[in-house]
Amino acid sequence: MTKKKIGILGASGYTGSDAVRLLARHPNAEITALTANTHAGKTMSEVFPHFFMLDLPRLVEWEKVDWTRLDAVFCGLPHGTTQEIIAAVLKANPGIKILDMSADFRLRDEDSYAQWYGHEHRAFELQGEAVYGLTELYREKITAARLVACPGCYPTAVLLALVPLAKAKLIDVDDIIIDAKSGVTGAGRGLKQNTLFSEAGEGLSPYSIGSHRHSAEIEQEIGVAAGSAVTVNFTPHLIPMARGEFCTSYVKLNGATPDDLRAELEKAYANEPFAHVTKKGVLPQTQNVRGSNYVQIGVVADRIKNRAIVLSTLDNLVKGSAGQAIQNMNLMFGLPETTGLEQIALFP
Amino acid sequence: MTKKKIGILGASGYTGSDAVRLLARHPNAEITALTANTHAGKTMSEVFPHFFMLDLPRLVEWEKVDWTRLDAVFCGLPHGTTQEIIAAVLKANPGIKILDMSADFRLRDEDSYAQWYGHEHRAFELQGEAVYGLTELYREKITAARLVACPGCYPTAVLLALVPLAKAKLIDVDDIIIDAKSGVTGAGRGLKQNTLFSEAGEGLSPYSIGSHRHSAEIEQEIGVAAGSAVTVNFTPHLIPMARGEFCTSYVKLNGATPDDLRAELEKAYANEPFAHVTKKGVLPQTQNVRGSNYVQIGVVADRIKNRAIVLSTLDNLVKGSAGQAIQNMNLMFGLPETTGLEQIALFP
Amino acid sequence: MTKKKIGILGASGYTGSDAVRLLARHPNAEITALTANTHAGKTMSEVFPHFFMLDLPRLVEWEKVDWTRLDAVFCGLPHGTTQEIIAAVLKANPGIKILDMSADFRLRDEDSYAQWYGHEHRAFELQGEAVYGLTELYREKITAARLVACPGCYPTAVLLALVPLAKAKLIDVDDIIIDAKSGVTGAGRGLKQNTLFSEAGEGLSPYSIGSHRHSAEIEQEIGVAAGSAVTVNFTPHLIPMARGEFCTSYVKLNGATPDDLRAELEKAYANEPFAHVTKKGVLPQTQNVRGSNYVQIGVVADRIKNRAIVLSTLDNLVKGSAGQAIQNMNLMFGLPETTGLEQIALFP
Amino acid sequence: MTKKKIGILGASGYTGSDAVRLLARHPNAEITALTANTHAGKTMSEVFPHFFMLDLPRLVEWEKVDWTRLDAVFCGLPHGTTQEIIAAVLKANPGIKILDMSADFRLRDEDSYAQWYGHEHRAFELQGEAVYGLTELYREKITAARLVACPGCYPTAVLLALVPLAKAKLIDVDDIIIDAKSGVTGAGRGLKQNTLFSEAGEGLSPYSIGSHRHSAEIEQEIGVAAGSAVTVNFTPHLIPMARGEFCTSYVKLNGATPDDLRAELEKAYANEPFAHVTKKGVLPQTQNVRGSNYVQIGVVADRIKNRAIVLSTLDNLVKGSAGQAIQNMNLMFGLPETTGLEQIALFP
């Protein structure tokens, strides 16, 4: 098979670089364009020295790329900037596959987008064809899509844990509390005081309670599963680790037992290569998925009657971003879904 | 004022050593006995080299101490071993003040103790006089006590956040979910695989869900405040930091608003030197209390109607253990409550 | 004693904030002015939330301070900006005491300053009266000084280890190799990519080899001790910890033994409150001094004949900066040298 | 090609588990036996839960393995225990390939072994055929070998940096100072107080100065390169990171320049897949090799005349252990040397 020619928009950020890390060793991919407008002209290893052993194209401005020569594009740009660029890319090459790792095409509702992101959608004509790229839930649509809006890291962790339960009406979707914990890479490579080593290290701080934009995606998709509008509690905390995300979801049971929940999840993911349900008594932990595309989900009984706790964990840059994007790309190109993604967690 | 003569039982553990750290600079205390049966004969700086600048008594077996010459004893022994030793100490010197940092005298109910700790209480005759040492809640009784059972680190954080709310009937005590996060010192200095640097670092893992013994203390004291038996959800997670504890408590409101909760907490702690309620919009974080005896408590609105989130944080070895014990000792000796405890958090 | 009125220039940086942390609990100090030009108008706890319990003056621009009402000023400004400001402060109040924690008055030679710092000295008329503030070496001059140039963190660690040996001619000053390791706070609070948690965490990188400006101070002071110009190897590395500095100095012996070196250091620091020499066989470690004003120094034999290894460690923000400045202030005001500085290391 | 059947002795330690991590995804390997005598009977994912997605053989006692059915064995046992077991394995199956990751066959001299390891060699009859498994230096011999003694992590980093320079007589081998820094996995998975998170985190401590056993290997191999017995200074420090090793070697030049050193190294490694020499001005850092089999080496001028600094870094569990063992296995089976080893560093 000839290798697919891949471009990466926003290669100087962490999601872009993790796409490079994985695609550089993907047997069916060839990285042929890397963009980073503020670093244009530099080599990738000037920006990310751990790529010293790779022979990669130099970073260029996105306007300089000949999109007609590419088969697929990964987009790791900040939200808000992506919509117009993707519209331009698709105009230049309507047959190209787009793996958008930004938030720009995740919300189907135009008003909801405007409300959560603070500005009107800039390419809403494309939103209709965008498929929400949570592979396990939308595999068929992704396979046929041109534009895939890969979910946020938190939504991936939460939705894989809760959607099957909401669909099966095992839980009360009006009483979902999600206590979420993220490593610092979740905040990106931009320079912020609170992500300095000396500030984030050896400490824990909550942030964006009640206002984190990933709430919107979570509510959209649980709403789809439940067949009704949903409001969830989503409370994120910053944890002193680089990678990893852990969601502790507190749910009210509709007559079901914790074992019923586990059974439902096991059924849903029985044939999934990356979504794993732990055995009764085994607790997921971020260490088990660091650097990998795997998700671990567990169910624990609550001492409060008629309640359960659902635990889920993933690597925010892999299954939570670049890895899932590649998983989707594999589907879109008819490749085995696991190609290039079977790295085991780097532990310790 | 002559200095009070202080002994520390279990000086080779972390709560013992933090008591030494603080008492060595306390203007009214003189450390005159240190016990550690497995390290008897060693100097303290062999066991904790950061005490190299102090002139401390050598570690001895607890049986070798002449308790009649001491004014107070801090006990940092593991639970289960403490009851008989404290009984022996009090027999040798009935006038001595006991600051127990273990779990041995925290539960007032004999059956509850047996159920959570797996063995019968070995000095239940003393339980009746033991005062639960949460200073802000039991100040008067502590002042008059001989035996103070200092609370666990998690209970201190949770109870300071929730007891005033339960007392004022602002929250529904049958629907309390406590997502708790602790630094690794919470597990003590014993050798365990999961607290090795290479295992706990750069990762997050839940533990003891539904079975953590601190649940019992939390339920006992919220029960007292509410006037009825209570079962809470208490879900602890291990965080890659040495010190610090953060509790995110999800509560259902009895018609109150989040602002009402904050106002109630502000009223409760208006004159407290160590318990601080953050202003609306300011979130507590462990960095603000590391190494100090302060507690920070905050209230945030929930997007789910009729719910709120109460955040609380402290240093598990200080306000969560040795610091609160010293705060209690100050009361018991008629000293200003803040003596020796006003260190500001070590940040960064 | 009435409290001395203290101002802090550059209170929004880490050395400034550590000065606040310590001075706020200093029995003879009252913080009456805090400057931070880019944060003017804010409260200190907006900039450093761990000061929530303190009642501090609001941050102002340095030009707004009435210097005639202050007894002493600590300066935590970046190098290069300090000279003119200090000149202005001294003009406004010639009797004020200046504790400069920047690099602006450390080098006695005008050309050397220009060479290492890339611009001409802007207040060289003051350099003559500036005393190099390494307390243990210049105590008498500091006591009498108006302007004290507190040394850099690395020079403090290195010079306390090597100056007594150079003075006593026990080592060959032409063959000194200093492998230095620093925590990330050494790089300050400014936003830099390499000090982000995700970049500096879980990794080690050398930096500024052969070009670190602290080399100049080290060479100046070892030169004074040896009575001749000296060039040293100084190779710093960034370590994933917030505080702490460790210097491993490889020295050639002039006929002396490692035990002779230790004896010389013990003699030099026999009466020093903060400089401690470890016993034979005990190795210094940063954990022993974290958050404290203590320095630990050790000597180890080398397997290579006629060589030894001298180890030294301190907290870069305390004995390496704000703590030593306060130690000097105590001398300048005739206070006991240890006042407000006896905190023991925060371990763990 | 049929897959080679692989056994791993000591699969419950970190070098064993990293061998599993890599071999499980190696296209020509099949793990068919895992031993761990203290954990016999458990599944591998009970011991290392990050292997939850693999279908691995259950852990057994080494005595239970049928060695005749295996093609190769990796040995991750502690030193001292390995010699007799390997002798037994080879007796059972003389055609098997042994990749020993322990220290038991690294020293060619029987007396040197006894001196450094404190007991007599227990299978010295095999030492003669053991090849020192530093791939880049002994490739031909390894290809033909049956028993390969893979080097320690520190020796790999140091020898790749210095052997070409010693061979070319560019440096004075009597004046080599190696300041070495290691992550905590270097100490293994055994329970030790100094490798607890709360002890090793946020701190730096030197250890085993003058007595670290890796000195012996370093001296043996630099001696071979130089053609004379050599004594080096080797000073290790424990760094708060899980993986990664960094060696800063201070060398005296025999008339050469730092550029000559870099040129010699570039020549030596021009065709090497895993050993990379950085360009002038680029400094190696552990982040660039974390989780990978790559080594980065750099040369920097020293401000002291006639001296240079050679920097080298690798992942102690990969190129420093399991990765290099697999690299050797590839050679021994006639596979492309890089098979299964091209993972890029996990950064951030």
Automatic annotation (TrEMBL), chains A, B, C, D:
Biological role: Catalyzes the NADPH-dependent reduction of N-acetyl-5-glutamyl phosphate to yield N-acetyl-L-glutamate 5-semialdehyde.
Full protein name: N-acetyl-gamma-glutamyl-phosphate reductase
Under the cellular component aspect of Gene Ontology, which terms does the record hold? cytoplasm
Q: Which family does it belong to?
A: Belongs to the NAGSA dehydrogenase family. Type 1 subfamily.
The reply on keyword NADP is: yes
Could you say which EC number(s) this protein's record lists?
1.2.1.38
Query: Which keywords accompany this UniProt record?
Result: Amino-acid biosynthesis, Arginine biosynthesis, Cytoplasm, NADP, Oxidoreductase
Pathway annotation: Amino-acid biosynthesis; L-arginine biosynthesis; N(2)-acetyl-L-ornithine from L-glutamate: step 3/4
Q: In what residue span(s) does the Semialdehyde dehydrogenase NAD-binding domain sit?
A: 5-145
Top-level EC class? oxidoreductase
Q: Name one Pfam family in it.
A: Semialdhyde_dhC_1
Cite the active-site annotation: C153
Location of the protein in the cell: Cytoplasm
User: What organism is recorded for this protein?
Assistant: Bradyrhizobium macuxiense
- Quote the InterPro entries the UniProt record gives: AGPR (IPR050085), AGPR_AS (IPR023013), AGPR_dimerisation_dom (IPR058924), AGPR_type-1 (IPR000706), NAD(P)-bd_dom_sf (IPR036291), Semialdehyde_DH_NAD-bd (IPR000534)
Reactions catalysed, semicolon-separated, are: N-acetyl-L-glutamate 5-semialdehyde + phosphate + NADP(+) = N-acetyl-L-glutamyl 5-phosphate + NADPH + H(+)
Superkingdom, according to UniProt? Answer: Bacteria
Q: From the UniProt record, which GO molecular function terms apply? A: N-acetyl-gamma-glutamyl-phosphate reductase activity; NAD binding; NADP+ binding
Q: Which GO terms describe its biological process?
A: L-arginine biosynthetic process
Q: Main localisation, per the record?
A: cytoplasm
